[in-house]
Amino acid sequence: MTQESLQTPAPETHEFRAEIRQLLDIVIHSLYTHREIFVRELVSNAADALEKFRHEALVNPEIPERDRELHIAISTDEEAKSLTIADNGIGMTRDDLAENLGTIAHSGTKKFLAQAAEAGKGDVNLIGQFGVGFYSAFMVAKKVTVETRSYHSDSQGWRWESDGTGSYSIAPAPDAPRGTRITLELKEDAEEFAKDSEIKSIIQRFSNFVAFPINVAGEKVNTVQAIWARSKNGVSDEEYTEFYKFVANAHDEPHYHLHFTADAPLAINSLLFIPKDNVERMGFGRTRPGVDLYCRKVLIMKHPEELLPEWMRFVRGVIDSEDLPLNISRETLQDNRLVRKLSSVITGKLLSFLDDQAKADPKKYNEFYKVHASFLKEGAVQDFAHRDKLAKLLRFESSNTEPGQTISLSEYVARMADEQKDIYYINGSSRQAIEAGPYLEAFKARGIEVLFTFEPIDDFVMTNLMTFEEKRLVSADQGDLDLPGEEKTGEGEPLTSEEVEALCKWVKETLGDRVQEVKASKRLVESPAVATTAAGMTSAMQRLMMSMNKEGSSMSFTTLELNPHHPLVHRLNELRKDEGASELAGELTGQLYDNALLAAGLLLDPRNMVERMNRLLAKAAGL
Ligand code: ADP
Ligand code: MG
Fold first, then answer.
1. Which residues surround ligand 2, an ion (CB under 5 A)?
2. How far apart are CA 615 and CA 623, in angstroms?
3. 337-352: b (≥16 Cβ within 10 Å) or e
4. What is the distance between the alpha carbons of residues 291 and 315, in angstroms, rounded to a whole number?
């Protein structure tokens, strides 16, 4: 045995967990474009490690060497075709190594894997987003070595090594200084990353705002700057965009930026961005929050979940408040009075900002709204404290707008007639479907505007808001609508009230449990019948209940309203009294009701209806 191996035991070999093997397989075999982003991933890991050390050093006086200058040092070796990225940050213990570089803790990763597998090739832009950053090194390296020593005073150094295929090894590295040093032995087709000039230009593109000096071959290459702490007037649009790309791992410009400074009630410097895209809408699973919390330019927490309301998870950026305690933890974040205050100030500020933007540039606001409406709606349902401000930001098509054009609730209220007390809306799958249905008739006849909503969540939004500017939000498919203005009816003579009563009773007996109530309609003009729902229940809610409980008795929420002016209703009344026509009367009743349910989107199983239609057709054809 040599002297060397006596001192240091042989490396232990460990298998990667299955999900890592899967990930590495994609990274190594499928990702060929934008490979340079591995630099950003490793540099941001180094910066994270430096932030953690700086933070520890601030709150923990036990830490030695605390005034040593913190930095990232990068060196290349063209001949050896290698690249080294070193930091003097927090480092890793042996357990840390196995934990951090052997498993994937992030929930988004599984999703990424599934999607990458589906697409047949991974989208490299997603790597950073899903927190699989370290493994991106294997896009360019045939072997990766990590030498590290934790900042804990009694820690020893370790060396982690892998070629990215199935396993990694861990061995002691007694000489490793505090921090982490990652060496990449580059693949033949990745030699360009062994050039200083190449690395410098990549850093300037992707890592310019890293808060620590990045030295390449001893020369500092980045701008170390807390842009959010600077005065608004001194920051150019290009700088905002560049910073956005950095904090949000983005590749484009932000849709909006909000640079906000306050002294009271809290000292705040914040810079928030709203991206152009909504990846949730594109099917990439739930977005994770993306606003970092700083205190006097020191990162306290990256992307804390508890800081801002959940619906704000699409916002990216930085919040810096010097009033916060440095030693605040994820656990205490929610209970901290200052944090709650900070959250509500920032949320209120963002909402006012959006309202201002909507007024100043409606076209730009509408572009934002199209993409991010789902978050605002979620907020309107869940965030009670900000509900009123969120409601103002919502937009809807209506019976008075052109297709695709929208209005706000405030605009709706402003153009309501004096005698109109409530705000009316109706949910349907499309504008055409709503306009073809029977519900609008009564509103059209009286010239009352109705808001159109097209998604199930809109129904929850409306029922949760309940009111807007003290006006009730009422679904137009409810029975017992007390509409303002003159009563409008169809043209023909109505049935007498005794006849109507007898007819309704007979129809109810004919339909049995399928219907809750049958009555004469006061709202219909042209249609013979309409299905309405009880107050507080909309047909969209009922559809949802029915889809959850297919065999259920949810039908009984429905009322059938008959139009006493309509010739078909008159005829039905005659037929029900004619003993020879009882079969036809029954068929007509069933069909009238199914047509009404169909218009309401409440006919789940059309089989009976189709059979009945065929029988009626046969009769009409004289068979
Ligand atoms: P993420 O950065 O999203 O956590 P990564 O795959 O980039 O995911 O890194 C995994 C983990 O490895 C990090 O969370 C960190 O704990 C550890 N790590 C990576 N690089 C370093 C480093 N330079 N210093 C200390 N720890 C590191
Ligand atoms: Mg990372």
1. 45, 133
2. 9
3. eebeebbebbbebbbe
4. 7
* Residue from 48, 90, 159, 302 whose mutation best tests the ligand 1 pocket (most atoms within 8 A of CB): 48
Q: What is the pLDDT of residue 31?
A: 67
Query: Which of 88, 97, 134 to mutate for ligand 1's pocket (most ligand atoms within 8 Å of CB)?
Result: 134
- Closest residue by CA, ligand 1 atom 17: 100
The upper half-sphere exposure of residue 15, i.e. CA atoms within 13 Å in the direction of its Cβ, equals: 5
- Residue 323 — φ and ψ, nearest 5°? -80, -10
Task: From 287, 289, 309, 285, select the one nearest 301 (Cα to Cα).
Answer: 289
Buried b / exposed e along 206-221 (16+ C-beta atoms within 10 A): bbbbbbbbbbbeeeeb
Highest mean pLDDT among 150-164, 274-288, 322-336, 389-403: 389-403
Give the span between the Cα atoms of 221 and 118, in whole angstroms.
Answer: 39
Test site for ligand 1: of 70, 94, 100, most ligand atoms within 8 A of the Cβ: 100
Q: How many CB atoms sit inside 10 A of residue 533's CB?
A: 21
Indicate which ligand has the atom closest to the C-alpha of 132: 1
Q: Which residue's C-alpha comes closest to atom 19 of ligand 1?
A: 45
Provide the token pair at 445.
């006849």
Q: Which domains does the chain have, with CATH numbers?
A: 3-220 (3.30.565.10), 227-371 (3.30.230.80), 387-475 (3.40.50.11260), 497-620 (1.20.120.790)
Could you tell me the two tokens for 152? 């804990």
> What one-character DSSP code corresponds to residue 572?
H
Residues with CB under 6 A from ligand 1: 41, 45-46, 49, 87, 89-92, 100-101, 131-134, 180
Ligand nearest to the CA of 89: 1
What's the full length of the chain, in residues?
623
**Residue environment code for 29-38, b if the CB has 16+ CB neighbours within 10 A, otherwise e:** ebbeeebbbb
Q: pLDDT digit string (tens) for 257-266? A: 999 999 888 8
Nearest CA to ligand 1 atom 27: 45
State the pLDDT confidence band at 46, using cuts at 50, 70 and 90. very high
Compute CA distances 601 → 451, 462, 537, 596, whole Å.
18, 19, 14, 9
Backbone phi, psi, residue 115, to 5°? -70, -40
